[in-house]
Amino acid sequence: MKTKMVPVFLSVFLLSVMMFSVARAKSVGTVSANANVDVEARIQGNATSTDAKATVRGNATSTVEKNNNATSTNVRNGNATSTNAKANGQLTALEHRSAVASFVKSLLSVADRDGGIGAQVRVVAQSQNDSASTTENAIRKVENRSKLQTFIFGSDYKSLGQLRSEMVTTQNNINQLNNLIAKAANDADKAELEAQIKVLKDSQVKVEAFIKARESSFSLLGWLVKPFVK
């Protein structure tokens, strides 16, 4: 009897060991699967975080680009405003006087350095300085004319005529400076003369725009008064 019971107990023991092994294997497999899932979730989370960071960086870059574009647009608008101001004849007597004063100062510096053309340069500087005084006074008279007078009789056509006469003087001074460039002692003086010629040309453009803007302003009797003004 005891001999028969040994195989039975042995069989039960072996069966229990096998079932325990299978259960443990399943448990390990489940843990491994869960671990893999957790790792994958972390990886996806990191990827999502990276994408989020990339999106934020992209948005920041986009914002910077927009700001740069806005700045560039403002700069262009600023330049356009300056150009429109010249075209619309927005010139003041003080602005003109300031530009000519700077011009005369630069020319006198050239005259002091270059003895060969110094005397001729001073003549041009004096001529333009005298012309600037007349131009400044004419601009001021046009600016100070009342709106009622302008509306009925038109602009101050006499002062506008003086401005055109001074433009002829300025053009003569430009021509003289062009002739003096070839006679300048060095490249620095030549460059300075060229720069001051550009200043005078810019001044001519502004004065011309100022005249045209005032001559074309609406008035009731300006067309009748203008031919008799000298």
List the SSEs and their pairings:
Blueprint: H1 2-87, H2 93-113, H3 118-144, H4 147-153, H5 157-181, H6 187-215, H7 222-225
Helix pairs in contact: 2-3, 2-6, 3-5, 5-6
User: For the residues shown, what is the average pLDDT?
Assistant: 74
Strand content: under 5%
First-residue to last-residue Cα separation:
153 Å
Q: What is the assembly state of the chains in this entry?
A: single chain
Number of domains: 2
The tally of beta strands, per DSSP, is 0
CATH topology of the largest domain, by name, is: de novo design (two linked rop proteins)
* Number of DSSP helical runs: 7
What's the CATH architecture name of the largest domain? Up-down Bundle
Taking all Cα atoms into account, the compactness measure Rg is 45 Å
Biggest sheet, in brief?
none
Structural class: mainly alpha
Q: Report the CATH C-level class of the largest domain.
A: Mainly Alpha
Order of H and E elements: HHHHHHH
Q: Are there runs of 5+ residues with pLDDT below 50, and where? A: 1-9, 20-68, 70-87
Q: What general outline do the C-alpha atoms trace?
A: elongated
Portion of residues in helices?
over 70%
